[in-house]
Structures are given as structure tokens and as C-alpha cells.
Design brief:
Blueprint lengths: L1 E8 L4 H10 L3 E3 L2 E8 L2 E8 L4 E7 L5 H5 L4 E4 L1 E2 L2 E2 L1 E2 L1 H9 L3 E2 L10 E5 L4 E11 L3 E8 L2 E8 L3 E3 L1
Parallel strand pairs: 3-10
Antiparallel strand pairs: 1-5, 1-6, 1-9, 2-5, 3-4, 7-8, 11-12, 11-15, 12-13, 13-14
Length: 161
């Protein structure tokens, strides 16, 4: 019977460990998290492990090649409690695999997105996102007295709708 086990990887070597295990014919998986940030005024997308330094491995519970996994480059060892390796439910693995891209709520809206502003000057006012204004602020178009006015607002005061 095949079971999923939790293994610890060496720091930032999840992809290396997964590739090395797959080269040995062992099924391995780790979910990735996609985040979007502003770096020097530019939008950047970064892919990281959802669970840093951990990987899921599928092996036969009785005849699995546990020593091959332990000796694979990038692997630190199995997570264990006493003499038992940590099992992970197939249901959890299926759920993680079905979520194709785990994304954080986008921190930065795209040009033209409708957002709401809530700060000392504006209380739940709708605006249109125009562009970033440095790392911590954004320029929005707010409709005041039937005119669109450009306003620079702290990113923490913007909420996407």
C-alpha cells in the first residue's frame, strides 16, 4: 500500500530534492506559493515553497526504498515521531495538488482595477488604481465633484474589491 510521508529538505533545496527523487522513480511533491510584490517600483512575481524545507514523498509502506530517500541530495531526513515516520493523508495531498497555484491575495492591484480607500481622509471611497508610487504608495484616480483626481495613497489603505 502506497503512503505519503513528510521529509525535511536542506534549506532552499526542495526543487533539487524533488528532481533527484523523481530521477530515482520516486514520486515527490511540494506545493508552491506565488507572491506578487513591488521591487524598486516594478511588479515582480516570486515562486516559493508553501511549506519551506518540506517535501511529500510517496512510498510503499512495507517495501519502500526509505534509505534511497534518506540518501538523496537535498534531503535531510524523514520527519518522525519516535520510530514512526510521519504519514500524510492522501486526501490532503490531493487537495494540495488540485490547487494549481497557491497565491497570496495580490498585494498590488493592476492598472484599472477598482479598489476602495479607507484612511483618515477617505472612508470606503471607491477609486481606480493607476500605478505604483514607489514601494509603499500608489496613485489612484478618485472621482470628486465629477472630476477624476489623482491621489497618492499608502498601499496599506487600499483594499481590492
Amino acid at each position: 500500500m502506497e503512503c505519503w510521508y513528510l521529509v525535511v529538505c536542506k534549506p532552499k533545496q526542495e526543487e533539487r530534492a524533488k528532481t533527484n527523487l523523481q530521477n530515482q522513480g520516486i514520486e515527490a511533491f511540494y506545493p508552491k506559493l506565488t507572491t506578487e510584490r513591488l521591487v524598486k517600483g516594478r511588479r515582480t512575481v516570486k515562486h516559493t515553497a508553501l511549506f519551506p524545507n518540506y517535501l511529500f514523498v510517496c512510498l510503499e509502506s512495507k517495501n519502500g526504498n526509505f534509505s534511497a530517500v534518506k540518501n538523496t541530495r537535498g534531503i535531510g531526513g524523514f520527519v518522525s515521531y519516535g520510530s514512526n515516520y510521519q504519514l500524510v493523508s492522501k486526501h490532503i495531498i490531493d487537495q494540495l495538488k488540485n490547487e494549481r497555484s497557491h497565491t497570496t491575495e495580490s498585494l498590488i492591484p493592476k492598472t484599472g482595477d477598482v479598489v476602495s480607500v479607507n484612511n483618515d481622509s477617505f472612508s470606503n471611497i471607491q477609486a481606480i488604481y493607476k500605478e505604483p508610487d514607489g514601494d509603499l504608495r500608489s496613485i489612484l484616480l478618485i472621482n470628486l465633484l465629477n472630476q477624476k483626481i489623482e491621489v497618492s495613497v499608502d498601499n496599506k489603505d487600499i483594499k481590492q474589491q
